[in-house]
Amino acid sequence: MDMDNKEKEELDNQESTDTVENDEGLTEEQKQSETDENPETESSEQDELSVLKNELEELKDKHLRLQAEFDNYRRRTLKEKAELISSAGEKVLKDLLPVIDDLDRAMESTATAQDIDAVREGLDLIVNKFQNFLKTNGVSEIEAKEQDFDADKHEAVTKFPAPSEDLKGKVIDVVQKGYTLNGKVMRFAKVVVGE
């Protein structure tokens, strides 16, 4: 009798596994019959899939176009930068030409000049013109003489005994002038520092 009960339980278990419900609570047979009855859901899924594919293709196309535009922009800006660098000094040099013309005239006049004071005065005018040119282009001279030594602006060539107590640690002589361009040091002033 125990054997018969066991057989019955096994048969019941086997039948229940044949009608196992899926995640939606439907048996496999019900699910199959429902998909057979609703071909509209299948076609709507295909329509949705084709719409998504079209959107994907459009996005890919937009991405490729945007990437190509960026590459063109990058090439164009690199070309513009290269042109700017090659012609950047042209304006400065063009503004410098009148000073060179004045120097040429001064050199010609020194050969036949009788009055040294007039030559000196002419050279002073040329130097002033050149200094004005430098100022208009953002170049200024670094003040160094009798100033406190500043390693950010001055380069100490040597130390020398200071002629007076108040010149210790200060610049007592300038060997070569220093210049800044718009506040940034172009060339350090080479100086002698008092000790």
Task: Walk me through this protein's architecture.
- It is a single chain.
- This protein has helices at residues 2-18, 28-37, 39-112, 116-136; strands spanning 139-141, 154-160, 171-176, 179-181, 184-187, 189-194.
- The chain is of the alpha+beta class and 195 residues long.
- Among the domains are: 90-137; 140-195, Head domain of nucleotide exchange factor GrpE (Nucleotide Exchange Factor Grpe, Chain A, domain 2).
- Strands 1-4-5 form a three-stranded antiparallel sheet. Strands 2-6-3 form a three-stranded mixed sheet, with no helix packed on it.
- Helix 3 (39-112) runs antiparallel to helix 4.
- The protein is elongated, with a radius of gyration of 46 Å.
- The model is unreliable at 18-24 (pLDDT under 50).
Provide the succession of SSEs.
HHHHEEEEEE
Radius of gyration: 46 Å
Low-pLDDT residue intervals, each spanning 5 or more residues = 18-24
What is the molecular shape? elongated
Number of helices: 4
- CATH C-level label of the domain at 140-195: Mainly Beta
The proportion of residues forming helix, as a percent range, comes to 55-70%
